[in-house]
Structure prediction request, 189 residues.
Amino acid sequence: MSETKIHTLNPDNWIDAYADYLFNYTIARVNDAEKAKDLVQETFFAGLKSMKNFEGKASERTWLISILKRKIIDHYRKINSNKGKAEVRMNFYSDGEREGDWIEERVPQDWGGDADSDIETEELGEALQACIEKLPEKYRIVFEMKTLRGFDTDDICNELDITPSNLWVIIHRARTQLRKCMEDNWFKK
Prediction:
């Protein structure tokens, strides 16, 4: 039986040994040099803060990459959560003294209820639920946990014993299948 090597951390060498590798890994995923530098720096800082959690089962580089992957995922989560909060301007009036832009969140909303719209929304929900039920079991479970119930990526990965990248592949495939199902069963009616 072979002995398992216990790895140690040497943060004094991290920049010389891993900065270029981590930067190249990051730039390929975020396509922004400044953001890549920030993420690598955050990775080193997080590594320093969590040194006590290092068990020595993985190499230093592997351990730092796992931290970096989480930083990249967090970066994209932040971008996606801020997307809807961006200030969007819309033309509202284009005549005389009322001319100007409105911030999207201040645009007057439709106050009326529409019975036809409510029925259509209910039918759409039923069609979507039927399509979700047609997904392969693993896709359905992951999609429901992430999209409908809002579970955290790490919690889903731990619960289902999958990697974050596998989770995002499953989510993508589930959405693709749902789109196809909705196109076939709802939009062609």
Q: What stands out?
A: Helices lie at 14-30, 33-49, 60-83, 115-134, 137-148, 153-160, 164-187. The CA atoms of residues 21 and 51 lie 20 Å apart.
